[in-house]
Amino acid sequence: MDALNAQMDEDRRLSDLADRIEACALGDRTALRAIMDQEGSRLLGIALRMLRRRDLAEDALQECFVSVWRKAHQFDASRGGARGWITTILRNQCLTMLRKESWEIAESADILERRQDEEVVMDAYGRLDMNSDLRRCLDRLEPPKRVAILQAYVLGYTHGEISGRLQAPLGSVKAWVRRGLIALRECLA
C-alpha cells in the first residue's frame, strides 16, 4: 500500500511539473520558483557528477533554469515527460561547458608550449657569441626565416610542426627554411 501511495505522489509531482512548465510559458515566475525548489537538488547532483566541480555545476544549473524559462513554450508533454525535458536541458548545458573547458585547457597548454619553445630558441640564439659568424649571419635573416631555422635545428621540428607553431602556411615555412639556409651558406662561405 505504501508503494502505491508513493507512486501516486510521484505521478502527481510529475504532473505538477508539466503544469508548472506550461505556466512558465505564460510568464508565471512563481511556477519557475516551484520547479527550482522541486528539481534543483536532483539536477545539481547530476551536474556535479558530470562536471566534477561545484562552481561549474551551479553555473550549469542556473543556465538550465534560464533555458527552462526561455524555452518553456517548446515543451510538449506528448513528446516526453517534464522531468526528462528539464534533465536534457541540463545535460546539454553540462556537455557544452565540458567542451568549452577542454578547449580552453588545450588552448592554454598550446600557448604555454609555444612560449616555452620561444624561450628555448631565444636562449640558444642568445648563447651564440656576438662576434661569431653564425650569429652575424643569423642576424641578417628576416625574423620569420631566422625563427623557422632555429626551430628546425634547435628544437628539431619538422616543417609541419613549425607551420603549426608559427601559425603560418606550410609552403611559406618551407620557403623560409630553404631560403634562410641558402642565405646562411652564402654568408658563412
How many DSSP helices? Answer: 8
The CATH architecture of the largest domain can be given as Orthogonal Bundle
CATH class division of the largest domain: Mainly Alpha
State the domain count.
Answer: 2
Keywords: Sigma factor, Transcription, Transcription regulation
Domain RNA polymerase sigma factor 70 region 4 type: 134-184
Domain RNA polymerase sigma-70 region: 38-103
Pfam families: Sigma70_r2, Sigma70_r4_2
Would you kindly provide a brief summary of this structure?
Pfam families: Sigma70_r2, Sigma70_r4_2. The protein has 189 residues and is mostly helical.
Descriptive account of the structure:
The chain has two domains: 2-104, Rna Polymerase Sigma Factor, Chain: A, CATH 1.10.1740; 128-188, Orthogonal Bundle (Arc Repressor Mutant, subunit A). It starts with a helix and ends with a helix. The protein is mostly helical. The protein has helices at 2-25, 29-51, 54-71, 82-127, 133-140, 143-154, 159-166, 170-188. Residues 134-184 form the RNA polymerase sigma factor 70 region 4 type domain. Keywords: Sigma factor, Transcription, Transcription regulation. This is Sigma-70 family RNA polymerase sigma factor. Pfam families: Sigma70_r2, Sigma70_r4_2. Belongs to the sigma-70 factor family. ECF subfamily.
What are the SSEs and their pairings?
Blueprint: H1 2-25, H2 29-51, H3 54-71, H4 82-127, H5 133-140, H6 143-154, H7 159-166, H8 170-188
Helix pairs in contact: 1-2, 2-3, 2-4, 3-4, 4-6, 5-8, 6-8, 7-8
